[in-house]
């Protein structure tokens, strides 16, 4: 088949419900790069939406997977223990945000892990209601669709969901906060107005009483909702509310965990310990694996047989996760993440901001190598146009995010200094072309 025929074949036989940003047919990948069946090379700053933490096909991960596949493909978790899972737990325990986060349940995807966290919270507390936040993305299953608020497309036409037990609070999104906008010099990321905390207190008085509320579920850094980091004071105050009202705090670190923000887990930036933490994506460098972790006394409240799954904690995926954690240590990935993060922010400040017309502004935000660029003063579809120009003319894959005009940069955690220079240069070229076109059309 020709490349066009391959793409047409895929479009015809793969469910239309799966959206796709390109018709690229990828044949191989290495590090920060992918190659199509035609041999064309692209710089990949999407990493499978943050999954490929150690880049494409890291040799150590490949070797671990090959060796494990030759020994044991699958040891079903409800039937037996297998050594890769036990070895992975030994690797994970020392890097948890606290030593009492010591009991794990493994599943396959982020959505499944979120569902596992809700099952644990409800069973352990004997309460039903869950508080989530505006802009959150927790998955596409029937249960997690009820918790997701980032875009209506994720749940339109699928109801009824578990909506009666779900209540939504505003996420601490300073850039959109009305209090910040009214007094930007007084209230900002380093001096929160406390409106988000006030809204949660109000929610507990008006919509879901503490004695009916099992958990507050929140992304430590908002992912699909726009790569938004909360103020430093937010999480300590949120934890106080949870502890005071006997409500469990569940942190969704599916996208922001495993080094993405410059620390092993994003919660480490905030100095608190969740009751339950959800992990996935970067945990196994592209292999399907997710997990929740909690205190043993909380996990032990579940009935034997109430948790499980055919592929839970697959042996090959666990081997990939062990290799991933070894790469973190051996290659000092956290050091690289923070160095490359500083480099990207500096380059964006020097090279991207000066090319913006006077009516266009950008909020450059995020942590580590989880970077969002939200543009204002631009027409709808602007971010998608930049991503399209980047793909088609600059041979670079970047993604948009949120309902606003936001681009997200999610490079591999081992991206090099030269690749960062290259990527920012390509982004600025794509942005310049789109802006020049819009200026000529009188749209900016």
UniProtKB/TrEMBL annotation:
<dbReference type="GO" id="GO:0042802">
    <property type="term" value="F:identical protein binding"/>
</dbReference>
<keyword id="KW-0663">Pyridoxal phosphate</keyword>
<dbReference type="InterPro" id="IPR015422">
    <property type="entry name" value="PyrdxlP-dep_Trfase_small"/>
</dbReference>
<keyword id="KW-0808">Transferase</keyword>
<protein>
    <submittedName>
        <fullName>11970_t:CDS:1</fullName>
    </submittedName>
</protein>
<keyword id="KW-0032">Aminotransferase</keyword>
<dbReference type="GO" id="GO:0008483">
    <property type="term" value="F:transaminase activity"/>
</dbReference>
<dbReference type="Pfam" id="PF00202">
    <property type="entry name" value="Aminotran_3"/>
</dbReference>
<dbReference type="InterPro" id="IPR050103">
    <property type="entry name" value="Class-III_PLP-dep_AT"/>
</dbReference>
<dbReference type="GO" id="GO:0030170">
    <property type="term" value="F:pyridoxal phosphate binding"/>
</dbReference>
<dbReference type="InterPro" id="IPR015421">
    <property type="entry name" value="PyrdxlP-dep_Trfase_major"/>
</dbReference>
<comment type="similarity">
    <text>Belongs to the class-III pyridoxal-phosphate-dependent aminotransferase family.</text>
</comment>
<dbReference type="InterPro" id="IPR015424">
    <property type="entry name" value="PyrdxlP-dep_Trfase"/>
</dbReference>
<dbReference type="InterPro" id="IPR049704">
    <property type="entry name" value="Aminotrans_3_PPA_site"/>
</dbReference>
<dbReference type="InterPro" id="IPR005814">
    <property type="entry name" value="Aminotrans_3"/>
</dbReference>
